[in-house]
């Protein structure tokens, strides 16, 4: 485990409840079809659990994963009233700003604080909506210090913390049974990762500049290989059947990946694992990933037209994608490839050819998303500047969140219909019943 020791606070013991904001009323978008979001697959709230691991005694902390549990706002409020915390903390994404405001309004907790991606740009508005304090950036250090300082009101910023010096997320606070994969009768998962696939981060942040992406931490922050291996062993001891590394750019640094894999190989780590990363063209890395037990690589390929990739500001081109796919196929690593439809200058011919191109590349699990102007993305601001929207609708939504807000689109109704039909066709060709297991 990480070697960091949490210092004891001198303040009075506080009862702290940290909550992942519930999905009720979240923003409605056309980005990802529901087939890619099976209810059986849930992820532990690693961000909150990392903060919880750094909260010192004599404080006590509990974590409610309202998202994975599918709790409504009223059910969350009921749990808050039952536990009567001294401090209520909410982790919020902009999609769930309505639920956040409802909880801030209706909860009787004496101190309410907010963190998470939504706080990065909208902290001032969150304070107006009832938050006593708002945390921007990593809160593993600032939140415990805030407790020690007596919970003052205000805005508290942090640069990325050293991930090698803090405890691992406090997974012991969660009920593992809530995260066991149990498909509903009649449904088929896109791949088989066993009954308890547990996630972890080996790094945080992405320094790439893709115009459509709403990842807000642009500083790459990575764990050392030995620390990664240690966390792998913790997940194995918890009973994981497989491990999923949730990084945005797992393979950003070759030496780190190679050293991590060498440790797994040397110690004959028994579990399979998967990663999220960028298109990889270095054969040595793909070969070593396989030898170390990696069976699946989730990659943001996004498009197979070099002109569109340039518009997206992606670093790879088609030749890189082709090499990546050839290497994964050579070493028997399944590819989960993410594609974006509806790009500027995307042609009908491209959409017609795309299924055949995917088959030629040997990709058996493609995911298709529709390009959408997400909050705080360059793509959205560029459309706004061009006058494609009458108002700054994200700013208006953040100021006065409404439930089930539907993201406005800049395309014509005919264009939207064509995209919808194309997506339906792709799902028929590549849907769950057509996928492979790993």
Secondary structure layout plus pairing:
Elements: E1 15-20, H1 46-53, E2 60-65, H2 66-69, H3 73-83, E3 87-91, H4 97-106, E4 111-115, H5 119-128, E5 133-136, H6 142-148, E6 154-157, E7 197-200, E8 203-204, E9 221-222, H7 225-237, E10 242-245, H8 254-266, E11 272-277, H9 283-291, E12 294-302, H10 306-312, H11 318-330, E13 334-341, H12 348-361, E14 365-370, H13 378-385, H14 393-399, H15 413-430
How is this structure best described in words?
By secondary structure, the protein is an alpha/beta fold. Helices cover 35% and strands 16% of the residues. The protein has 15 helices and 14 strands. Strands 2-1-3-4-5-6 form a six-stranded parallel β-sheet, sandwiched between helices. A six-stranded parallel β-sheet has the order 7-10-11-12-13-14. A two-stranded antiparallel ribbon has the order 8-9. The two termini are 29 Å apart.
% residues in beta strands: 15-25%
Output the number of helix runs. 15
Mean pLDDT: 92
Which spans of ≥5 residues are poorly predicted at pLDDT below 50? 1-10, 434-438
Distance between the termini: 29 Å
**Rounded to an integer, what's the Rg over CA atoms?**
22 Å
Structural class: alpha/beta
Main beta sheet: 6 strands, parallel
Question: How are helices and strands ordered from N to C?
Answer: EHEHHEHEHEHEEEEHEHEHEHHEHEHHH
* Spatial sequence of strands, sheet with the most strands: 2-1-3-4-5-6
User: Could you say which overall geometry the principal axes of the C-alpha atoms support?
Assistant: globular
Q: How many beta-strand runs?
A: 14
